[in-house]
Amino acid sequence: MSLSRLWLKAVALILCIVALCALAIAATVIPLVKESTSTREERYATSILDQVASLVEAKHQEILSYQKLALEARKRELGDITSVFAGYLDAEQGAAQNTPGGQAAARTRALEFARLFRYGQNDYVWVSDFASRLISHPDPKLHGADFSQVKDVYGNLIVPPMVALARENGEGFYSYWWNRLGKERPAEKLTYSRLYRPWSWVIGTGVYVDDITEEVERRKAGLIAELREALRRVVIGRSGYMYVFDEDMNMIIHPNPQLEGTNFATTPNPRTNRSLGAELKEAARTGQPLRYVWDRPSEPGNYVYEKISWVRRHPGFDWYIASSVYTDDLYQDARVLSGRIAGIAFAVFAVSALLGGVFIRRLVSPISRLSKAALAVQAGNLTVRTGIVRQDEIGILSREFDAMVEKLEDHVATLDAKVQEKTAELAQNLAQLEEANRQVMDGISYARTIQRAILPGREQTPAPISDHFVVWKPKDVIGGDVFWLHTDDDGFLLAVADCTGHGVPGAVMTMLAVMALNRVVREHGAQDPALLLRELNRTVRHTLNQDTPEARTDDGLDIALCRVEPGNRRVLFAGARLSLYLAENGAVEEVRGDRHSVGYRSSDPDYPFAAKPVALRPGMALYLATDGLLGQAGGDKGLPFGKNRFKAFLEAQHARPMAEQRAALLEALAQYQGGQEQRDDITVIGFRLA
Amino acid sequence: MQELIIEATKSSPQIHFDPAGHVLEMSGESYPENAAKFYAPVFDWLGRYLAGLGEEQVTVNLAISYFNSSSSKALMNLFDMFDEACRTGRRITVNWRYDPDNETAQECGEEFKEDVCDLPFNLVACGPGQP
After folding, report:
1. What is the ipTM of this complex?
2. In B, which residues are within 8 Å of A639 by CB distance?
3. pLDDT for position A433
4. In chain B, which among 75-104 make CB contacts under 8 A with chain A?
């Protein structure tokens, strides 16, 4: 089945909707996902950072408190030992009290005891007098030495301040720095001194606290190692990591072992060419993440990957803790999701195209059939039926369509039958009419022969006429125009008459006119045309009973009657509404008739028609015409031919042979008439005397 | 009374007589087969119209470019009717309109004019188709 437009449109619509939905989903979801994953990663990164920072802080506090506690313990220890020693001194001093000279001996015994006394890690006590002379010290080089001017490695006096402290406050703690065997750096010695009043002694003991410091360092290193382990396990995003560096930009902890321990103070940020370390520190200060370009753990040295770092400063250790993430990773999820959405959309697209195509085809194919059937009906085939049977609107449409076409077929068949019937009827009527018309026309053409018979024939042309032409053109085969001739010894009468009407009634009148003319000539002679007209008038009126009050008709004629007397070289002209035209030497003269018709009911029986004499000269041409020629419509405006046009013609043509004039006249008439029908009977006679 | 409107045919003129506006118009060509039959209702109407006419000024506009002899007679009777009406006090004016190129119409108009006595008859040369 060919692809129907409707099907294409519907499928295209569905696909558009699906595509729009997919696009809408993609357009809204993907940015959301992008943002949410990057926010999530960011939050993760910062929260990890916070956690690590607080962990470090906790550890820091732990170390600090250990340090404090250890120091406190040491101090107590020092105090206790000194108290013990002081107690011993009390005992000696007490025992010697009652013995003369015993105090000195006791003092000597005490100093000896002090010199030999040891505790802890080979720690000892010392005794000084108020002048800062070490009267007891385990080291033989120092025993008995004057320490009033001795300074430590930093230039501070050692013993005098301790003595002063004991004398002022009874006791006190004091620290000085000394070089220890086997240590490169000076070590801090924490010393406790107490006043022993009875003998004016200052007793004291001290301990190096670099143990504690070392212990702190050891713990710190332990923390770093722990942290390193912990941070190594941290993965932010896909491959983001954490790292730690100090105030001087030494990398303390970094997943890349080559970077750990190195100083990156000179490393620039490839993007800004400023010191990366400085920018990271700045980031810690402002709390804003730093964006820059770095390498990946999997591709060390290839500095092309975009990264973001969040940095926090830990003031306790002067550390900068940073968590970093690769921007690619941040959007990884979103990319995967987009891909997935695209894939799904495509799949949905394909499936809907398929399903939609199939389903819509089912919907549309009957419509296609329907439209094809409609086209066939339009083209004239009324036998088509769609034959679709369905329970939905399309089914209804098809059913009604089929019913309609059936009805149409019926109607057309009926109509055809009726039309044929009618046509046959009409054909019959036509045949009958044609027959009737033929009969009438036959009658008329026979009447024409009769009418022609009453017209003077060529052979009756009077002898004096040397040249003549006759134009006699009835409008409809026969007509109301007629011309009449009566020849006698002295000349002849020539008349041109226009009877009422044309066609059959006109022809009937012409019969009457001719008979009446013959009669009046017989009764009154052929000499006086005016008299003849008067008598003609009376005769016609009487014959038609138009001279009675009961007259039923009002018919008559117009006439131009010439009495030509060649001997007298004159023409007597009498006319009823028609004129005589004379042409000679390029000039035309019209001799007008009386303005009174002949024979009508309204014609005056006593009307005095006048006979006008006209001198005949050689070469003069004479013309008689009815108003048929003059009234013929034609030309551009459909106006009558007119007297002026006729006169102009005569002026031009009158000298030519009559036969030629006839031809020219018919030519001129035909040209002027053009496509117009002939309005009236036309009669024109021209003649010349010898 | 009602207007008289007769549509023109090939051989008969258009007739539009308006009794309310007192304007009677005929235009076209007149050569019907039976002029008496054609003009009978016209005369009939005119008879009734003139009978009921007071002193209103009536204008008759005729623009007939061709008429055969029987039509000519009918027109003559028409003018006689108007002429008589003028003699009995009516006020009627006839405007005979013709194309200046149509000398036949002009001549006929002149003849009609000569035949009437009391009827004002104007010969108006104008272009074709103008009312």
Report:
1. 0.85
2. 65-66, 99, 101-102, 104-105
3. 94
4. 99, 101-104
